[in-house]
Amino acid sequence: MKARLSDLLLLLLILQVGCSDAIDPSKFTTPFERSDSLETTSYSEGIAWWRSLEEASPYVCVQEFGKTDVGLPLHVVIVNASRNFNKTKIHENGKTIILINNAIHPGEPDGVDASMIYVRNLVSSAEFTKDYKDVVFLIIPFYNVGGALNRNCCSRANQNGPVSYGFRGNARNLDLNRDFTKADSKNAQSFLLFYNQWNPDVYLETHVSNGADYPYTLTYLLSHPKKLTPPLDDAIETLFSKPLEERMEAQGDQIIPYVNVFGTSPDSGFQRFYDSPRYSTGFTALHHAFGLLTETHMLKPFKQRVASTLRFMQNLGSLVAQNSQKIQQLRLQAVENSYNQSDYVLDWKVDEGNPSKLKFKGYRAFTDTSEVTQQPQLYYDRNDVWEKDIDYFDKLTPTIRTKAPTSYLVPRAWSEVIDRLNWNGVEMKLIDQDTTLDCGVYSIEDMETSDTPYEGHYNHHHTRASKELRTVKIRGDEYYLVSLNQRSKRFLIEVLEPEGPDSYFNWNFFDEILQQKEWFSSYVFEPEAAAMLDDPEEKAALDAFIASNPSFKDNAFAKLYFLYRRSDHYEKDRYMTYPVFRIE
């Protein structure tokens, strides 16, 4: 009898442990819910809440990864129906990984609160272990920790709630959604290491919009198909865009592509947002992942915005779970295709001559005289809703192309560039012996540079470079050999080709080459210049230079400098010579 009683007690204990897997969601209300949907969760409240959920649920693990500019760590919440939180084992088990990144702009906090409710409801569901057995969720509760701590009531002048929220800039006042390639912030540096170790299949980032007024609560943005390696280019529309729109509309929450309109109304159409690699969805495209971004409308009530973001997450998670194996297969095909790809587009422009049609609901826009400026001012009448097909300029045409080399040579001296390649998981090998190589070498011919700082840089644009084949002597331990026979191929081309819009050159990491170091004294060089003119070819070149630049006819220094640049004294291998070489 005693043995049977002990067996019964043991059975009851086992049953109790099993029952603890399913948490009671009523015990994990969020600060957002407790405030009657008026407040967003603060950083300290959020981390404490996630820690409490971790203690209660065997499917949740909270880990720290990397530092931020404010000195505090970044956190990731790992949600896995298999109760395994080791990234190596997760990859070995073939799980599809979806990464949700919140509070990159902490004044746009909808995803912070939606993620908490989403995960709580997921792990409370009796169907969780069955429906999501092939999926692992990674949730970053607060990416911009410094901005989240800089809480205020009023910096978002256009936004309808919450009562208080964080600030767009991080602790260094950097916009982290402009920092994915240049990676100035510790946040981004930590994120890049984390991202490339986990290699997520699907990435979602949550935002609140600015811009025009319209009836939709949520708009969304995808990595532009033109910038994705096939077959991801077609799949992102068929797997995500259309099904998400259909599911959200069936739930009474119609969504459309991000309304990229500022200062005017959408009546006459608008362009699809061009997400270069400085932005998250442009960055994830370089790593052959599906990138998505939500933009809830700033003037809709906070409660409504969070509900719409939550609904989007639920539908996205369901789609990923239902297509998990297909998503992984498509990514593997894209990586394989990138190995074989030789022609690459570095930059694009919107094709303004070939718009699609987008069925759009809008508010009647009108102008009236401003009481403040006494000038015409745009307004919207929300009582007057229209619906019609408008022009949607969603296509891109190439503006800059390049051929992929077999390898790059990246100088060790540019340590900031080497660091960024390492953070992005690039495989490199230091050349440890003296050698001579035939390389394609770029000379920077022209560029424009911003007059005012942008995200801490006076960045370059419209860069133009010429290339020639040179025999280059490489000293041992001076250069890294970076083969393009790796999954980072597309990323490497975008950041190391100087003409790319978000190349490391255009972000000023090679500005040292733009300054000439050695010069001449006219009275010393003049006799040598005179001797150069004994050569008819040099004399003809100087005459042609003066003929094409009449203002230099009486400019003695300009004439001498022209000849100096053609002499052996000129630093041809340094000044305006891009130090990353191509092995063709």
Summed up:
The chain is α/β, with parallel strands linked by helices and 584 residues long.
Tally the helices: what do you get? 17
Strand elements, count: 19
Question: How much is the radius of gyration in Å?
Answer: 28 Å
Q: Mind telling me the CATH superfamily name of the largest domain?
A: Zn peptidases
Strand pairing plus helix content: what structural class?
alpha/beta
DSSP strand (E) fraction?
A: 15-25%
Largest beta-sheet details: 8 strands, mixed
Q: Which sequence of strands runs across the widest sheet?
A: 1-2-4-3-5-9-6-7
**For the terminal residues, how far apart are their CA atoms?**
83 Å
CATH T-level fold name of the largest domain:
Aminopeptidase
- Which stretches of 5+ consecutive residues score pLDDT under 50? 1-20
Q: Just name the CATH architecture of the largest domain.
A: 3-Layer(aba) Sandwich
* Average pLDDT for all residues: 95
> What level of helicity do the residues show?
25-40%
Counting structural domains, the number is 3
The CATH class of the largest domain, by name, is: Alpha Beta
Label the overall shape.
Answer: globular
